[in-house]
Design a protein that fits this description.
By secondary structure, this protein is mainly alpha-helical. The protein has a domain of 41 residues. Helix content is 87%, strand content 0%. The chain is built from four helices and no strands. Helix 1 crosses helix 2. The chain starts with a helix and ends with a helix. 2% of the residues are buried. The model has no long low-confidence stretch (mean pLDDT 70).
Length: 61
C-alpha cells in the first residue's frame, strides 16, 4: 500500500514540475530521466532536492 502512495506522490511531483517549467523543476526532471535510463532511481530518491520538494509540496496541500 505505501508503495502505491509513494508512486502517486512521485507522479504528482513530476506533474507539478512539468506545469511550473522553472529551472529547478527542469533540473530535477533531467535528473529523473538520466537516473531512469541508468537504472539509478534509488540514488535520485535519496537526493536532498527531491526530499525538499516533496516536503514543500506536501505543505501546500
Amino acid at each position: 500500500m505505501w508503495k502505491q502512495l509513494f508512486a502517486q506522490l512521485i507522479i504528482d511531483v513530476i506533474k507539478d514540475w512539468l506545469s511550473r517549467k522553472d529551472n529547478f523543476s527542469m533540473k530535477i526532471i533531467r535528473q529523473f530521466c538520466q537516473a531512469g535510463s541508468q537504472g539509478e532511481f534509488r540514488e535520485l530518491l535519496d537526493s536532498p532536492e527531491l526530499k525538499h520538494f516533496i516536503v514543500w509540496r506536501l505543505g501546500e496541500k
